[in-house]
Design brief:
Length: 329
């Protein structure tokens, strides 16, 4: 703890210093005038290198033309000095200045000549007060960190709650919210919004041959591959229902959506997941329906999904393992 003693009388400074040193206090500094004090603590025009202090023992009258009360007020006006405890030392006849000193920010006062018991009692109170303040700040830091961790955990839980538990992609509720959000956003552009509806070809027969565990592994492999085909943070893959997946592609015209869909189709086929009961390939394949619209406020976003479903139906009836397109007017 650093203590600054400010008094124009050298004998008083030495007396107070001796009492503090005898009580085990260290880090003691002395200043004869307010200007000297300002230089030591790095304040005002006279500021030197700032020497952080914890307590200032300030005479109500100091040399240099500035009263201790004025000095205290100036010190406490500095935001970085708010935690510094100022104790005024009043000479006989200076009691009338104590009220002004308290108004200026002093926390306590001593009578001069300074009495050892009175001084150490005041200092003990300051030490306890500062220790409690430090403990409070420490708790506030810990509480802030705990709040941050809880907020992080809440975001993770919100993220996880929006994922389909089986495939790890967005669930239907999250898809619906995202579709509504992107549709409204696109109307302000206006910009195109594309959707891709995806179905794993002959997946029911795959489940019959490879069992529930094999089917789940295949679904996970398919969704991972599809997710890897999406390059932008705004692109979203989700599980639309038990059999179908849906991809939302904001700000994507039909040509771009078809290119992404074709890349997805080729990527799944290249996985080489055996499907002995498929009627179109020896491997697991997918059929995709692409739709694109330039959203308007008088049209429901569900029309985009309905168009993608229609295009998917065309892909399945057209032989599967292909991409078909339906563009909304």
């Amino acid at each position: 703890m650093k203590i600054l003693i400010v008094d124009g009388d050298r004998e008083t400074r030495q007396h107070v210093r001796g009492l503090l040193e005898a009580a085990g206090y260290t880090g003691l500094l002395e200043a004869e005038t307010s200007g000297d004090a300002f230089r030591l603590i790095g304040l005002g025009e006279a500021a030197g290198k700032r020497d952080a202090v914890d307590v200032i023992l300030m005479a109500t009258q100091t040399d240099g033309g500035v009263t201790g009360v004025e000095t205290c007020r100036k010190i406490k006006q500095d935001p970085e000095m708010q935690d510094v405890a100022v104790i005024m030392m009043a000479s006989e006849g200076g009691a009338e200045q104590l009220e002004a000193a308290f108004d200026a920010g002093a926390i306590d006062c001593l009578s001069k000549p300074v009495n050892r018991v009175e001084l150490l009692t005041r200092m003990g109170s300051v030490v306890r007060m500062k220790r409690e303040a430090e403990e409070r700040r420490s708790r506030e830091v810990e509480l802030g960190e705990l709040k941050r961790q809880l907020a992080d955990a809440r975001r993770v839980m919100q993220y996880l709650s929006a994922l389909d538990s089986q495939t790890g992609v967005a669930d239907r509720e999250h898809l619906d919210r995202a579709l509504d959000h992107e549709w409204r956003r696109a109307t302000r552009g206006p910009t195109p919004l594309s959707a891709v509806m995806i179905d794993i070809d002959f997946f029911k027969t795959y489940s019959e041959v490879y069992g529930a565990e094999g089917a789940e592994q295949a679904q996970v492999s398919v969704t991972r591959s599809l997710s890897g085909s999406l390059r932008r943070p705004a692109d979203l893959l989700g599980r639309y229902d038990d059999q179908r997946l849906l991809v939302l592609l904001p700000d994507t015209p039909i040509q771009g959506a078809v290119a992404i869909a074709e890349g997805m189709r080729a990527g799944i086929e290249s996985l080489g997941i055996a499907h002995t009961r498929s009627q179109v390939s020896d491997w697991v394949t997918i059929s995709l329906g692409v739709s694109t619209a330039v959203p308007t406020v008088d049209v429901s976003p569900t029309t985009l999904v309905a168009a993608a479903q229609q295009a998917l139906g065309q892909a399945k009836h057209g032989g599967r393992n292909r991409v078909m397109v339906h563009v909304l007017d």
